[in-house]
Amino acid sequence: MLQKIRYYRELNVKPSKTSQVSETCEVLEGRDFYDGEETLILGVQDWIRRHVTRAREMAAAESDPTIRESLLAIAAMNKWLVENPPRTLREACQFLAWFQSIDRMWGRGGALSQLDELLRPYYDADKAAGRIKDDEEVVWYIASLLFNDPHYSQIGGPTPDGSRDLTSRMSFLILEATHRLKIPTNIAVRMHDKLDPRLLRKAVEYLFEDGTGVCYSCSKGLDEGYARNGVPIQLARMRAKVGCNWTALPGIEYPIQDCTRQCLTKPFLLAFEEMMADATAPSLEELWNRYTHHLGVSVDVMKQGFDWHMEHHARNSPEIVLNLFCHGPIERGLDVSAGGVDIYRLTFDGVGLATVADSFAAIEQRVVKEQRLTWEELASWLANDFGRCESGPERDPALVRQGENVRLMLKNIPRFGTGNSRADGWAKRVADLYVDLVRGTPTAKGFTIIPGLFSHGDIFNIGKKLSATPNGRHAGAPISHSVDPDPGFMPGGGGAPTAKSNAVTAVQPGWGNSAPLQIDFDKHLAVEYGGIEAVEAMIKTHNAQGGTLVNINVVSKQQVLEAHADPEKYPDLVVRVTGYSAYFKMLSPEYRQQVVDRILAED
Q1: Where are the domains of the chain?
Q2: Rounded mean pLDDT of 496-505?
């Protein structure tokens, strides 16, 4: 890295004798770029050297010969890595641990890409040379790496030409390490038609045994969708899952994914309130037209924000670590966010799809078709939050009861996810509108934005600022999670996993960004649903139908409820939340409530 920086600094930073002042400023900026990168590496080298010194000091004071030998080996290994590339699997894992630590401190990065392929050559060489005689040693290395930082990486998946699967012995050893650790880890199995069935089976077996585990990144929807952007399918297959819900081309793409959310619900409320305040007669068509307008304004503002961000990011927060691990920034003397790489496909994610779809469907059924409410009555009930806004000694209990009846009437319609319902139709229509607005035109500065549907935990903060909605949601309550139907969408719960999977695949954005499926099984119901074979079949089907990501928990309902009431009771309970895994105890009450609601609803 130092040689590369010094070579390209000498090549690219050559002030001309006839340079004007403005050109001189540009030259100095270029030198600053290289000087900053060099200073980082020199600092990291010094940091590693100090660990070498400390390991030797600890070894000198250690009476246990086994521990002393290990400390001396750590010192020798890291002394080599100060200036040299890894030679062995252990050295490769140590290098990645340094990378994780530095990248995490600078920009909360540290993803490890296609981890099995990254480590496989070292494993194969060590086995051939006899340096590794027992794979238990390998599991220990991987577990230590993941314990250092349980960041995102991928195992399995197609080769660029799609002819074979990347699964290797290393894939299974990584999976085994996650199982042994039983801490939050964020490994994805990359689903595709040729995936080694043994890897999928082992992953699902561990899911049932541990309650959580890997997620399943679906190649068909991701790869074919990304190829629609005009890139070869071979390149699309090279993307790796390196975040909660997203994939990227390691080293050659700067996507800014999983950072920005687009609320789909607020434009709906603006459209409804504006229509009711206007002299125009209210109608579904008028509401839709106004929703299209307000969502379009919101999307346009987001695009303007991305242009501003990309113009200023490199000066505000340069990607000083990422620049070193990409093809282009050092060669060009440009930050990865400012032209250092060739591929920029930025993303933002829509939030609240089910809330909007169920609201349109409730209005269509209860106001337009059945005429159980007038438009004006609906507006009044929404304004007073179904009677909850009535307060003080004058509060009328009868009005509150009536408001609750109205709320339940609006809520209890065939909702998004039930299949072939009006709400399913509205969900598809809203998703398509959002995708067209986002992907239909680039930003003013020419950036392509790829739409996704993913919420993370934003549904609480966004919901707190929103008034009541026609789907029966109270003011201040969370909006719907990611692209999933709301909990309890399927009366009786029968067939809910299959129905939810079908609903999620029906509204995929289709351009290579994700719209994840979240499934939470009670352990006993998971067995009744069909056990391991049924879950395997669901994952395969979701991939075949064009889904993009599957997150699954198989947990005890009783245990989750007890842990929610008293988090200290189950300190080691790990769950997959919204694309990442975490200790249930460490989640906020709002985050824990997401898991509780899903478990209760799917009972």
Answers
A1: 1-84, 258-301+337-491
A2: 93
Amino acid sitting at position 209: E
Q: pLDDT grade, residue 520 (50/70/90)? A: confident
Across the range 185-201, mean pLDDT stands at: 96
pLDDT at res. 601: 67
Average pLDDT, the chain: 92
Give every CB contact of residue 268 below 8 A, 6+ residues apart in sequence.
Answer: 291, 294, 355, 356, 359, 360, 469
Residue 484 and residue 505: Cα distance in Å, rounded?
Answer: 10
Pairing of strands 215-218, 240-241: unpaired
Backbone phi, psi, residue 451, to 5°: -80, 145
Give the dihedral of Cα atoms 110, 116, 119, 121; nearest 10 deg.
-150
Tokens representing 498? 């299959």
Region of 495 please: left (phi>0), alpha (psi -120 to 50) or beta.
Answer: left
- Top pLDDT among 258 and 64 is at 64
Kindly report, residue by residue over 3-19, the tens digit of the pLDDT: 999 999 999 997 654 44
**Nearby residues of 247 by Cβ (< 8 Å), 6 or more positions away:** 217, 222, 226, 239, 240, 241, 512, 514
Contact 185, 100 (CB under 8 A): no
SS3 554: strand
- Taking the complete model, does pTM exceed 0.85, yes or no? yes
Share of the chain above pLDDT 90, in %: 77
Q: What's the pLDDT at 16? A: 52
Could you tell me how far CA 386 lies from the centroid of its own chain? 35
What token pair was written down for 573? 């309970």
Nearest to 89 by CA among 57, 34, 56, 127: 127
**Of the candidates 500, 543, 565, 386, the residue with the CA atom closest to the CA atom of residue 573:** 565
Q: Are 425 and 512 in contact (CB under 8 A)?
A: no
CB-CB contact of 1 with 41 (8 Å): yes
Model pLDDT, residue 494 = 55
Q: How far is CA 106 from CA 83, 113, 133, in A?
A: 22, 18, 37
pLDDT band at 543 (very low <50, low <70, confident <90, very high): very high
Q: Mean per-residue pLDDT for 191-212? A: 95
Length of the chain: 603
Q: Amino acid identity, residue 95?
A: F
Burial class (CB in 10 A: 0-12, 13-18, 19+), 401: exposed
Q: What is the DSSP letter of 328?
A: S
Question: Which amino acid, one-letter code, is at 437?
Answer: L
Q: Which of 465, 471, 476 is nearest to 487 (CA)?
A: 471
